[in-house]
Amino acid sequence: MSTVVITSCDDYVSNIEPYYNMTKDTDLNQQKYVDGFVVGLQDQLSYTIDDLTVNAGGLSDELLFDMRNSQATFSSYQNTDNGTPMDAEEAGGMFTASHELRQLSDTLIYRIKNLIAFSDSAVYRRGLYNADIYGGLGKYFLAAYFGMDQTTGGSPMNIGRFVPSAQLYQDAIAKWKEAITLTTSAYEKKLANSLIARAYLFLGDYANAATYVQLGLVKGDNPLTGKYNATNDNLWRGSAGEVRTQFSVDPRFYTYLTKDPTESARIIITQRTGTGGFLFYRQLKYIMQPDKVTVTPIEVIDWQENNLMKAELVVRGAMAGNALALINEVRASRIDATTKLPVSALATGTTITLADPVTTTSYSIFVERDKELMLRGNRLIDQRRFGKMHIAGMWQNFPISAAEKARNPLWNQ
Amino acid sequence: MFKLRAAYGESGQLPSNTDGLPLMYRTVAGGAGSGIMFNMMGNPQIEPERIKEFEVGIDAEFLNMFSLELTFYRSDATKSIVRSAFAPSTGLGGYTFPYNVGSVWGQGLESLLQFNPIRGADYDLNLSLIWNYQTNEVRDLGTTTQILTGFENVIKPGLPKYQFYDYKVKGATFNADGTYKGVDATPTYEDLGSNPIPKHTGSFTLNFRFLKDFQLYAMAEWALGHHAWSYTIRRAIAAYSYMPYLKLRQNLGIAMPTIIVTNKVQVDAPTYTVGTPEYTDAANQYAKMNSSYYANFIYPADLLSIREVSLSYNFTDLVRTFMPTSYISNVQGGFTVRNAFKWTKFPLDPEVNTGGGDLSTSSSEFATLPQPRTYNAWLRFTF
Which of A16, A36, A406 has its CB closest to that of B148? Predict the structure, then answer.
């Protein structure tokens, strides 16, 4: 006996309507959506910068991973602290996020210039200004925090060849310079100038840094920040703060406080006890606010940093000015929430150096930046450029992610 | 009875309902407010997978106590749908994208042998053996050279689907003075020669009724020829909680981590002289425990499990004898042991994994409790 059965079906749903909670790219080519894209860039900055600054702190001598603190368990953080970050867990998320920030910006620029018909030129300029600011930050992050090996900073772009940090900084500068031409707001111009000055400073181009820093943010200007709330938390709280302290703050910050208690206005830490009486220090700068909704933002750049850049450029001889006064202006702006006291001023006549050891009569930019810019991702860059890496022969940036290496054969060419 | 079977069929898998969509955006309520951001990236060119499968087999009964089913199959899948992320440098590395991959070939053998040597009113013995074998190979990915998927897996021409793929640790490197320096690993991801899908799977079942009302049941399962990845051991090493690792540190004279010293953990192992074969061997073993290299934690996961052993007694005749007017129609009682024994090459339990306990999908396990051995005494009434 034999049986032959034939059945067939060759049909399938080939087209469906989009979900109500998402929209096709092409449906967004309207002027009214530009401001929403700008907020998207701001949100992506927030998603990116907390991860970057926590890990950069870990790779630098700013943060400490020690298992005598029982909350320190992640091997990825341990590798980072040891100066041996791997290319998977350690680098993957923030490398992807930095590129996404750049890509969101590039996509918005293309959309604005080619796909949207504008009736309001102010929206056109606002959109492009912000796309340039945030796209520049994406490139800046890639320049400042990633590299193909321990010391060669940079990143591949668009599944293409490796672009060195110097070029990425220049690309970011070009974007920020274009941004200046797109706004009439004095504040927005100053913000872009500060970003440009910082990139030039990190490039070692002190003449250009001096030019732009003098056009940058001044006392009273708002900082550019990454913003957080209860549902979009700041990673500092969960990885190096009040929720969980995988990374603790280096003990030298406690020493800063004991030498000058007024430093509590900007060095906000608390002492904890771990295994065997081990003392470690938890940062409380980034916290959930009493309203249980907002979380402390991260400063991307502020006028205080601009002042310190000026002070450094004065010491480097790139511009005229009073480095001591610039530093003291910053210190006076930091007020302790409890004592209402500012950080004490440096004594008149104190010599300001770049990175010499602090004495009773001299003080260094390197140390002041350590205190003022703590937990903002700057320490790693400062250690590199001042030649003060704390672990010799180890990674001075994060490796290109394994996901990139596996998909991009040009990543190191 | 002898029956020869043959069949040919074509089937496939449809794309998911969003696979065919283009780049989509969504509104995200972030810290800065509600902004428009990427949501997902589909592939408007996605097509259904097509699988062509031919099988031939026999069904046979012989000696009035054996039955045998044998099936050989061969399948060719084209346009299989696989999701993979873009390179991060595109800015879309956080999103996966559905591909139609070129061609995946597979074949296997499925067998069932049943043996019923005793059949009677008071005694009945049934034995059943299932043994399946499968192999497959990715033949073509079109213009794509490889697709990374899952945790440590790749889809790449010439390799079975989901082959483990990562940096391969070859051993240790040494300083000029002969002391341990670090890990000697390949500079790129490589085929690790292992796969999470078992080549052989099967089971054996015994069902024996004796003295009319007693029933003995036992079932064993096995899976052979696959590997699994242990995140648990990696984490234990990273947290200095794995004694073999600490002993190797001691062998190499590497200072113990502060936490081990603080907690006064006793590590009983000799310290070898630099340059001796013992030192070199320990150094190579130490490199292969480096927690930064995932490939170090892929282990053979061959498994044999006595899944269940049960002995029961049917009290129904007794009930009918002593309680003839009872509404109870059936009473059984017994004792069952589940997960009675397990033998595996894997250092932990390969059946606990991040995708749930399943022999066919074991590929990674992390800090979940093994399936417990349970003992159950039970009494069942039917009214």
Answer: A406
